[in-house]
Amino acid sequence: MRVLFVTFPWKTHLYLTVPMAWALRTAGHDVHVASSPEFTDVITGTGLTAVAAGSGPSLQEKGDLIIQRAARSGMVLPKVDYAREEQLTWENLKAFHTVFAMIMEAANDSMVDDLVAYCRSWKPDLVVWESMSYAGSVAAAAAGVPHARMHLAIDVGTPLRQRFLTVRAQQPPGDREDPVEEWMSKWASKYGFDASEELLTGQFTIDQMPDSIRSESDVRNVSVRYVPHNGPSVIPNWIHEKPPAPRVLATFGVSMWSVAGSQPVPVGQIQEMLDSVADLDIELMLTLSESIQRKLKRVPENTRIVNFVPLHAVISSCSAVMHHGGVPAFCGALAHGVPQLMVSLTAQDAQIRGQRLEEARAGLWIPPQDMTGPRIREDLVRLLEDPSFRSGAERLRQEMAAQPSPNDVVPELEKLAAEYGSR
């Protein structure tokens, strides 16, 4: 079987798909991974075969494009609690879809034509596209190839879309615009296929979230266990040494759009956090780029700062993990049964993940407006001293461990590719 993966040119997005891609490869299937040209070295660094698609904007230029278009339109993603139906008004849903369509266009348009041509020439049996890469679903539909979405976090988009379509049908005929449908129809018209909601969900979805964390929808799901992959890395020797005090990993990722000159947790808040936990009997391991490190005024004696550390190698030695809502840190902590503290919440689904984390008694989350040094200290002490959080995290670890591995899922993907390929 020939399988084409399509990924947004961002390491986190690629790395979350690599274990599934390698499971297919080691099962004897031919696997290629397509993305923007500037990303091919990162793909080949995983040992997989890269396909360059598009000659358009780089990642930074795509980020600029989204920011510029949003600024011109005056639209921003509404700050709402997606779990609260009363906040899902027509105006909020319309604003979400307007900005989302801008993101779809900026992130995907430059790749579509090359991907369609590649699918029509290589003729894959299955296209697997991660959840930002709608160019993959368009190319698969244009070439008549079965396709699956590989979702990397909680799927809040599908319930929001279903709610949008319901509320839209209740609006006056002159107020029923759907920018997402317009984007899909643009490509469907060009390549001669019927646009459908499958372009957003895949004909089926590969979902790596545990059942108790994921959202409910009527999309056909294939459950797969999260397997950590953090890219090429060297494990420092000190990681294997017993820490002198409970080890706490703090990792706040990087900005999704570095061109914006910001990061999920501002330097001032990082400094406040360091000052607030300076007297705790812990070993705080903080990952920060050198440029951010230089902006810190004080580093406590109980803190070790590193540029990078492979999460899968260090989390198992930790008593707690503090992070900004990134999926690798979130799922890495789940996989090792380590309590976690979510702050900042940059990802679209992070608020829901934070709430479900607390419901499972596997961690705590701090809404952005409440994120202060004293609050972080208070919640971190709770995680370290209350054994119920370790018990809750262990329950989620067991639930995740019971999910089928990527290798176990390969036969199901083979059957689904044959099923949808025969239609």
The CA-CA distance between the termini, in Å, is: 17 Å
- The secondary-structure element order is EHHEHEHHEHEHHHEEEHEHEHEHEHEHHH
Number of helices: 17
CATH architecture assignment name of the largest domain:
3-Layer(aba) Sandwich
Subunit arrangement of the protein: single chain
The main sheet comes to:
7 strands, parallel
Secondary structure category: alpha/beta
CATH topology of the largest domain: Rossmann fold
GO molecular function: hexosyltransferase activity; UDP-glycosyltransferase activity
Protein name: JenG5
GO biological process, one term: antibiotic biosynthetic process
InterPro entries: EryCIII-like_C, EryCIII-like_N, Glycosyl_450act, Glycosyltransferase_28, UDP_glucos_trans
Summarize the structure.
With 423 residues, the chain is of the alpha/beta class.
Protein described:
The chain has helices spanning 11-15, 18-26, 40-44, 59-73, 90-122, 134-143, 157-168, 179-191, 198-201, 267-276, 290-293, 311-314, 327-336, 350-359, 373-385, 387-401, 406-421; strands at residues 2-6, 30-35, 49-52, 126-130, 147-151, 204-207, 221-223, 247-251, 283-287, 303-306, 320-323, 340-343, 363-366. With 423 residues, it is of the alpha/beta class. It folds into two domains: 2-225 and 404-421, Rossmann fold, CATH 3.40.50; 237-401, Rossmann fold (3-Layer(aba) Sandwich). The strands form two sheets. A seven-stranded parallel beta sheet has the order 3-2-1-4-5-6-7, with helices on both faces. α13 (327-336) links the parallel β11 (320-323) and β12. The longest helix is centred in the first third of the chain and has 33 residues, at 90-122.
